Structures are given as structure tokens and as C-alpha cells.
């Protein structure tokens, strides 16, 4: 078996016992640097995370980082075609947590997404992406401070799962034959030249995601949970998501219908509502205050994440976590991708990975360190010391490199 992973000698594993996370003072946490801008971002981010932990706990607590490999670096370390080595998966499984940089996925050809594979293999069913405004960040909207939402994106199902067959192949022909001959489908406009994709959406998959979203709203005192779907068109998949979501809210959280339904309310006042996805995308621009926690399907969640991030300044400041709330497994990663044109230039904004690390610290219960990061990042932005993405539309800004931005955040931890 390959052993390219060096396990830190001093650390211990994070574990889940009796439904509760057990986090030792020296947890071993696997990380993947990522492709493209990943290494620049990781170098800055890890220093910020370590500095916050050191400042908060004066050496009592420390993360023992363990590099694991995926993507282009994995090919260098493990050899051809080893995009996602077994021992990387095993490490994320055994050590429960991980943090990663972005990984490249080619368009239209080549490997399927390693990012998606990790979510599927570890069954990280909730992609949690908070979207909040940091004062002073340049934004294209008039009142970015009105955006304060947390997206719960289903992370294992939907058309995003990559079950598809290419036009002109035997497989596509088989699928076409099955659909037209056995299922009586007559609506395929150009059957001979069509590729086909499958969109699985299940009751179980929907329920565990909606459960996590509602539980989060309850735990954090949010006002509403909106189920975002395109159920008028995709009745059994996206419509099923909406109906199963409402049913779960009633059955498990005691929600009762208001004004004749289908909207309903929990005993503590949290409103469970639904909105069709296209309408949602215009409403978040016009009336963002009406949305709070968002529960949605995989592909919708992908689009919504970037669109909402833009409203608060862009995907340079858009963190995320892929979580299985039952097993405790979690991999933290930014919303953005590899931004390859900026690779190795030390210019990209590391805030999304830094804030993903902040989410990780909070999930671990290391709230003092997480708070330090939030405060220091806020202060650094207020000082208008920012990377190119913010500097290009911030008056009076001092543009700094990725590494320097990290230095400034650390200097602002007081
Ligand atoms: N989870 C993951 O690992 C993800 C991987 N990907 C993969 O990444 C690759 C590139 O995807 P692409 O569609 O170009 O999307 P990217 O998110 O990589 O980049 C798109 C644009 O967003 C801006 N941007 C991205 N990251 C940052 C940052 N940290 N700071 C400031 N601005 C940023 C840049 O805008 P500007 O040009 O205006 O400066 C950039 O050109 C693809 O292979 C894709 O599959 C994509 C998303 C997630
Ligand atoms: O896996 C990829 O390359 C893209 C993933 C993505 O865009 C996302 O999860 O937001
Ligand atoms: Mg995306």
C-alpha cells in the first residue's frame, strides 16, 4: 500500500461518540492544497488559522496538519491517473475532518469532478454556505448588508451526480431505446443526437438535508427556511423535494400550515416556505431581507451560491463546508474554484478558505479562535488593505498580495 501521507506524531484523531464530536487539543486534520491558486491560498490561510489558535489558547491547543493528496499534485506524488488515491479518502474517513483547496474539473471531457467524488464517497450530504456581508467590501448592490443567508445545498444527488451518457455512444442509444420503446417517451426532440442525463432525487436525501437546514435555523435563532426548487416543471424531483420538505417540517418539527398552506410555521415561529428557483433569483436581489436559511437541490445550490456571493462582494469571500451531521464527517472548502489565470502569482483573495477554516474551528467548538479570525478579517477590510478583487472597486484601497493579506489579518488579531 502507498504511504505518501506523513502522520504527525503528536496529534490525535477527532471522533464522534454518542452523536457528539470529540475534539482533542491536538487534532490531526488532513488538508489538500488544491490546484491552480490553491497553493497560494493555502499558504496564507494555514498561517492565519494557526495564529488564531495560538493566540486564543496560548499553546494549549494546536492543529496538527497532515497533507493528503488529490488532483494535480496527487499525480506528481502517486503517478498517472491517481487523481484521488484511496489513502486520501481513507484519511478523510478516519480523521473525520478535512479542509481542501479547489480542484480542477475539465469541461466536456476527462475526469469527473474530484470535489463531487469526495462528497459522494464520504456521503457529505449538506453543503453549507453562509453568505454574510463584511462592512466595507465593495458590492454591486445598494444594500449588501441586507444579505445574511445560509445555503443548505443537497450534496449527493440530482443531475449534479454525473449520471449521463454521451450522444452517439452505444450507451446513449440503449438509454434512448429504453425511454422510447419501454417507457413510451415521445418528447425527445432530436433522439438520434441527444446525450442523456439522469436526475435522481430521493425522499431520504431530501429529508436529511431539510432536517439539517431546519435544525440549523432552530439552533441559531433564524427566522425562516425557504425550500428553493423548480417543482412546477420537474414535478417528481424538484416538486418532490418541496413536498417531502414540508412533510418533514410538520412530522419532525411540529410545523403547522399558515393561511391555508403550504407555508407553515414551527412552534417557535420559524416559517417554512418555498419559492420557485427563477423567482428566487430575482427576489434575492430585490428583497434579500425576506430570505434567511435556504434549503435546495444540488444544482440550484451551486448557482445560488455564486450568485449570492456576488451580492456581498464575490466568491473571494465565500466559505463553505460539506458535512454529514450523522457521522460527523466534514470537509471545509471555498465556494470558488481554481481561478487558474492567477495561479502562483500570490494575488488571489484567500478569505474564502480562511473563512472555511473559521467554520471548521466553530464546528470543532474552538469558538474563541474562530471569533478572532472574524474580527481580524473585518478589521483588515476596514483598513482597506485588500487583494486585487476588492481593490479594483474600493476607493482608497491598498492592494496587497495573498501572503501580505494573511500577514495583515494576523497582525490585526488583538
Ligand atoms: N470546489 C471546487 O474545488 C471547485 C472547483 N471548480 C473548478 O475550478 C476551475 C475553474 O472554474 P471557474 O469556472 O473559472 O471558476 P473559479 O471560481 O475558479 O473562478 C472564476 C472567477 O471568480 C473569481 N475568483 C475565484 N476565486 C477567487 C478568489 N479566491 N478571490 C478573488 N476572486 C476569485 C475570479 O474572477 P475575476 O476574473 O473577475 O478576477 C475568477 O476568474 C474549474 O475546473 C472548475 O471545475 C469550480 C468551483 C468549485
Ligand atoms: O467540482 C467542480 O469542479 C465544481 C464544483 C462547484 O462548482 C461547486 O461545488 O460549487
Ligand atoms: Mg460552484
Automatic annotation (TrEMBL):
The keyword Cytoplasm does not apply. The modification N6-succinyllysine is found at residue 100. Mg(2+) binds at residue 302. Keywords: Glyoxylate bypass, Magnesium, Manganese, Metal-binding, NADP, Oxidoreductase, Tricarboxylic acid cycle. SUPFAM superfamilies: Isocitrate/Isopropylmalate dehydrogenase-like (SSF53659). The record marks 160, 230 as: Critical for catalysis. Coiled coil: none annotated. GO terms for molecular function: isocitrate dehydrogenase (NADP+) activity; magnesium ion binding; NAD binding. The keyword Nucleotidyltransferase does not apply. It comes from the Bacteria. InterPro entries: IsoCit/isopropylmalate_DH_CS, Isocitrate_DH_NADP_dimer_prok, IsoPropMal-DH-like_dom. It catalyses: D-threo-isocitrate + NADP(+) = 2-oxoglutarate + CO2 + NADPH. NADP(+) binds at residues 104, 336-342, 349, 388, 392. Binds 1 Mg(2+) or Mn(2+) ion per subunit. The modification Phosphoserine is found at residue 113. It holds the Pfam family Iso_dh. The modification N6-acetyllysine is found at residue 142. SMART domains: Iso_dh. Residues 28-409 form the Isopropylmalate dehydrogenase-like domain. Homodimer. Belongs to the isocitrate and isopropylmalate dehydrogenases family. This is Isocitrate dehydrogenase [NADP]. It comes from Deinococcus cavernae.
Amino acid at each position: 500500500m502507498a504511504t505518501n501521507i506523513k502522520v504527525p506524531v503528536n496529534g490525535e484523531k477527532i471522533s464522534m461518540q454518542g452523536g457528539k464530536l470529540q475534539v482533542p487539543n491536538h487534532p490531526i486534520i488532513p488538508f489538500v492544497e488544491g490546484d491552480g491558486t490553491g497553493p497560494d491560498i493555502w499558504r496564507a490561510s494555514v498561517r492565519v488559522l494557526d495564529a488564531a489558535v495560538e493566540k486564543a489558547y496560548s499553546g494549549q491547543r494546536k492543529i496538527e496538519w497532515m497533507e493528503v493528496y488529490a488532483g494535480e499534485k496527487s499525480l506528481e506524488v502517486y503517478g498517472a491517473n491517481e487523481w484521488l488515491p484511496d489513502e486520501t479518502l481513507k484519511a478523510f474517513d478516519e480523521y473525520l475532518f478535512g479542509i481542501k483547496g479547489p480542484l480542477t474539473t475539465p469541461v466536456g471531457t476527462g475526469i469527473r469532478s474530484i470535489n463531487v467524488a469526495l462528497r459522494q464517497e464520504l456521503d457529505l450530504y449538506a453543503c453549507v454556505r453562509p453568505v454574510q456581508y463584511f462592512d466595507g467590501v465593495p458590492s454591486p448592490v445598494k444594500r449588501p448588508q441586507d444579505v445574511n443567508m445560509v445555503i443548505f445545498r443537497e450534496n449527493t444527488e440530482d443531475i449534479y451526480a454525473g449520471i449521463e451518457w454521451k450522444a452517439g455512444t452505444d450507451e446513449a442509444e440503449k438509454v434512448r431505446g429504453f425511454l422510447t420503446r419501454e417507457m413510451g417517451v415521445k418528447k425527445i426532440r432530436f433522439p438520434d443526437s441527444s446525450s442523456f442525463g439522469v436526475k435522481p432525487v430521493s425522499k431520504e436525501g431530501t429529508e436529511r438535508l431539510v432536517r439539517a437546514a431546519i435544525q440549523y435555523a432552530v439552533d441559531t435563532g433564524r427566522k425562516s427556511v425557504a425550500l428553493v426548487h423548480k417543482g412546477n416543471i420537474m414535478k417528481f424531483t424538484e416538486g418532490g423535494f418541496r413536498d417531502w420538505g414540508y412533510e418533514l417540517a410538520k412530522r419532525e418539527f411540529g410545523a403547522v400550515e399558515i393561511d391555508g398552506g403550504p407555508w407553515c410555521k414551527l412552534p417557535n415561529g420559524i416559517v417554512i416556505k418555498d419559492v420557485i428557483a427563477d423567482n428566487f433569483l430575482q427576489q434575492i436581489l430585490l428583497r434579500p431581507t425576506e430570505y434567511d436559511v435556504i434549503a435546495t437541490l444540488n444544482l440550484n445550490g451551486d448557482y445560488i451560491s455564486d450568485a449570492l456571493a456576488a451580492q456581498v462582494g464575490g466568491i473571494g469571500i465565500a466559505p463553505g463546508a460539506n458535512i454529514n451531521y450523522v457521522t460527523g464527517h466534514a470537509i471545509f472548502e471555498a465556494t470558488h474554484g481554481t481561478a487558474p489565470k492567477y495561479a502562483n502569482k500570490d494575488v488571489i483573495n484567500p478569505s474564502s478558505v480562511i473563512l472555511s477554516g473559521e467554520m471548521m474551528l466553530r464546528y470543532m467548538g474552538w469558538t474563541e479562535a474562530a471569533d478572532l479570525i472574524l474580527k481580524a478579517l473585518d478589521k483588515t477590510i476596514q483598513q482597506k488593505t485588500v487583494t486585487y478583487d476588492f481593490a479594483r472597486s474600493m476607493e482608497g484601497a491598498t492592494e496587497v498580495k495573498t501572503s501580505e493579506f494573511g500577514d495583515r489579518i494576523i497582525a490585526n488579531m488583538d
